[in-house]
Design a protein that fits this description.
This protein is α/β, with parallel strands linked by helices. It has three domains: 132 residues, Resolvase, N-terminal catalytic domain (Rossmann fold, 3-Layer(aba) Sandwich); 148 residues, Hect, E3 ligase catalytic domain fold (Alpha-Beta Complex); 105 residues, no CATH class. The chain is 41% helix and 19% strand. Strands 2-1-3-4-5 form a five-stranded mixed β-sheet, sandwiched between helices. The longest helix is centred in the N-terminal third of the chain and has 32 residues.
Length: 415
């Protein structure tokens, strides 16, 4: 019996030795059974949640290997069902897919073998408990955050203008003998607070979001840390817009405005706004950075701009002009800074829609002034794609692959 091993741990707060422990358990089980563990097929996903299959690169490569002909191994060893998935549907689908290709799974700690007749029921039972663990954990975290907000503490995350200061509890001990952290309080960062007040002042005096971003970038003012999806650290209109609407700068904590929901198709989490009745508003005067007079002046201009230049509602999938999707949206990359090219002009009634670099147009940190009309770009790219795809060789390859997939699906349906 040739065996592969799969291991996973979900959080970067856990120990990496968790992987070693899981692999050791699987090795010991294989030794007791007299099975051979193939060193080339030990796969590990580190700091990846088991709530979805997205981002599980090691697991996907192992499944792809199992589908090869001839198959390189006969069985996959996993420490327990929660390491494979914390979703019942995902766990059952994986076990069924592997069984179809003649590869079975063994969950060492629970003694479940997917080759047994009762395996589906056992995987379902343990999968329900694994899934419920995540649901209960999310509820406890949310409840704990609410308690911290009501106590005027910070629920988590970083905010420009403030420092996160942990509150240590000397009566409790955390990992490695350190005092446990009972909460986090915010302290005003004097240099960043001055930048926040300046942004509010510039906007109240009539400067636009893009102009403010360019001025700050030209002066070399350090910008907030970028999200994980972006490497360029620079001021941009969207971040300034969010700062102007952040009530924390006026000493008000607004919590529970959004909730994270996982897309069942992609496995990615997205933020969705909660009903206003669920929001929690707590006055925290010591957090105030922007005087009330300046806050009111900036928001008076925000309302004025929205009334005069608000986005026209279109209905349907393109709810606004800015939400319209173009054919090559997200596929073009700036050759100088690597930013995703976007539509930067021509959204109004006159003028051609043009693609350009947002880091040059809105941030002033890229020298790429090149723009191209949308209609000409699509004409050129579509002609090139058509010339490369519609060849006899490509058509023959496509038909051959289609015939193989169709034949495999017919065989599966007969079974």
């Amino acid at each position: 019996m040739r065996c592969a091993i799969y291991a996973r741990y979900s959080s970067d707060l856990q120990r990496e030795t968790s992987i070693e422990d899981q692999v050791r358990q699987c090795r010991d089980h294989a030794a007791r059974k007299g099975w051979a563990v193939l060193e080339n097929f030990i796969r590990c996903d580190q700091a990846v949640s088991g709530a979805a299959l997205a981002g599980r690169d090691a697991l996907h490569t192992l499944i792809a290997e199992a589908k090869r002909k001839p198959r390189p191994f006969d069985r996959i060893l996993v420490d327990d069902t929660s390491r494979l998935a914390r979703n019942v549907a995902d766990a059952l689908k994986l076990a069924e897919t592997l069984s179809y290709h003649g590869v079975y799974m063994t969950f060492v700690s629970q003694g479940i073998d997917s080759q047994d007749k009762t395996a589906r029921q056992l995987i379902t039972l343990h999968g329900m408990m694994d899934e419920q663990y995540l649901v209960g954990l999310a509820g406890k975290v949310h409840r704990g955050q609410e308690g911290r907000v009501l106590n005027r503490l910070h629920p988590g995350g970083r905010c420009y203008g403030y420092l996160n200061v942990p509150i240590e509890d000397p009566t409790r001990t955390a990992k490695y003998g350190r005092p446990a952290v009972s909460g986090v309080r915010l302290e005003i960062h004097s240099e960043q607070a001055a930048v926040v007040r300046r942004i509010f002042q510039m906007y109240a005096e009539g400067q636009g979001l893009a102009r403010i971003a360019k001025v700050l970038n030209e002066e070399g003012v350090p910008a907030p840390q970028p999200p994980r999806t972006r490497t360029l650290r620079a001021w941009c209109p969207s971040s300034i817009q969010e700062m102007l609407r952040n009530e924390r700068y006026r000493g008000v904590q607004v919590w529970n405005r959004t909730q994270k929901q996982r897309n069942p198709e992609t496995g990615r989490k997205i933020s969705r706004q909660r009903p206003a009745a669920d929001w929690r508003r707590v006055e925290v005067p010591e957090w105030r950075i922007v005087p009330e007079e300046l806050w009111n002046a900036a928001h008076t201009r925000i309302r004025l701009v929205n009334e005069r230049m608000g986005r026209m509602r279109c209905g349907g999938l393109s709810r606004t002009e800015h939400s319209r999707q173009y054919l090559f949206s997200g596929l073009l990359v700036c050759g100088l800074c690597g930013s995703r090219m976007v539509i930067i002009s021509g959204r109004g009634r006159r003028g051609y829609v043009r693609y350009g670099c947002p880091s040059h147009r809105y941030r002033g940190v890229c020298d790429n002034r090149l723009t191209i009309r949308q209609d000409r770009l699509e004409e050129q790219l579509l002609a090139e794609i058509e010339g490369r795809i519609l060849t006899p060789e490509m058509i023959a390859y496509t038909l051959e692959r289609f015939a193989e997939e169709l034949q495999g699906r017919l065989i599966q349906m007969r079974r």
